[in-house]
Structure formats: structure tokens, C-alpha cells
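Journal club prep — side note

Before the paper discussion, L.F. wants everyone to see what a predicted structure for a comparable chain looks like in C-alpha cell form. Sequence:
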Amino acid sequence: MKTWALCLSVLLAGCSRQPRITVGSKNFTEQLILGEIIAQQIEREMHTDVRRKLDLGGTFLAQRAMLGGSIDLYPEYTGTALTAVLKQPVVKDPHQALERVRAGYRQWNIRWMDPLGFENTFAMAIRRSDAQSRGVHSLTQAGAYQAGWRMGAGYEFEQRPDGLPGLVQTYGLHVNGAVKTMDLGLLYRALAQNDVDMVAGNSTDGALSVLPVEVLADDKRYFPPYEVAIIVREQALAEFPGLEAALAKLSGKIRTEMVRRWNYEVDGKHRPVREVAADAVVEISR
């Protein structure tokens, strides 16, 4: 009996050491959803268990986890990688930004897959009724609106180099009074309550999927590209045949409107991330 138990324990120990793909993410809703989508996609395509290390923290913690080998892949943003990780200047052309981060990450043997199909950049939003009555659907048209705008923004946006000062200069926006700075979660409430006329949100905010607001077209491409792509260690691609093909099936399949809806399902309706991600994987595969 003891011999049988010893053999079983050895067998189980051997099984526990089987290599598994580890998916990571940063620590906000969109990243949690994307990380879970990636994990479920791998499980679906490769019929293998995936280890999840989601909610790691910010960019540098996720990057450290990649370099240390504790995760094999996670979703990243081109603009963030270029400026925060590689410390390179902002590039406005999306293709050029992607090529630069691809070249920069080769030093760490990390591959950038083709983008997922959307970006999470800044988004200037106004009430839909104002867009229609004032004939304003782009930031150029907003700059030509002489009556001006009462502006609401997060604390960081007012100061950062790709934030409000450059935006005002690029489009000639007329800002009425002082900019009202507030927590990002309060921006759309302030817009709905007519406390401000324009807010600086994010292009994938869940609220944009349900509120009567319009995101103004950045027709001069002021904001840098923040395309989302899966980055993966070359060692993992070599170790797990089929991983690259499984991940490639996500490239180009996700639209901004989908991400807004998924974010709202979690933040607005409080649905579990795994449940929302499971629905998303089915939607993507159609």
C-alpha cells in the first residue's frame, strides 16, 4: 500500500510540473477582461490549462513579470510601450509606433503580435444633443465653435504633454473659464448634469456605450496611437506549438464598440469578468 501511495505521489508531482502558459494583465477593468479573453482563447484553441496572473499592477510591474518569466504574455498599448517603457518620443503614425515598439522589444526577446483591432486613447466627448444642435462632430469643428466650451478633465490630463494644452493649441479650442478637474469616474455625470460641455475621457470607457454622448473625431490625429496588441515571450512561442496561431486569431477582431460594451458589463452591470470574457470569446469567433 505504501509503495502504491509513493508511486501515486511521484506521478502527481510529475504532473504538477507540466509547463503551463501563464497569461498576465494590468490592474484595471479593460486589462482584466482582455487577459481573461486571451486565457480562454488559448484554452479553447489549444485544449490546455492556462495559469492566470491578472491584476498585476501597472505597466512596469507587468513588464518586470515578462522579463522575469513569471508570465508569458499580456496585452499592452503601443503608445505606453513607446514612451513609458522604451522612453522614446511620441509617434503619431500608428504603423510607425508599432514598428518602433516591435524593434525595441526585440532586445528582450518579446514579440508584438498584430494589434487586436482597437486602441484606448483619449476621447473628447460632448452631449449628443449639443453635437446635433451645434453641428459639431470633430475637434476641428469644436475649435471653430466660437461660443466655447466648459471643459471637464481628469487631474493628469490638464498637465501631461499629450493632454489639454497641446489639444487647445492644435484645434484652437475656446475654453470658457477654468477647466474643472475631477476623478475620471465623475466626468460623465458632470456632462449629463450640464456642469460641463466637453470631457476628456478614454475611447473605451464603458459609459460611452450607454450614454447619449458623442466622441469627437480627432481629425488632426493629435492624440498618440495606443493600439492594443498581445506581447509574448519568444521562449513561450517556441515552447508551446500552436500558441502563435491561437493568439493570431484574436488580431484585428476586436472593435472599440465591443470593448466599451464589455467594460460596461463589468463596471456598470457588475457581471463577473470571466463571464463577460466567455461571451466575448464567442462573439469574436463568429
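L.F.'s comment for the group: Residues 16 and 213 are 51 Å apart (CA to CA). Keep this in mind when we get to the figures.
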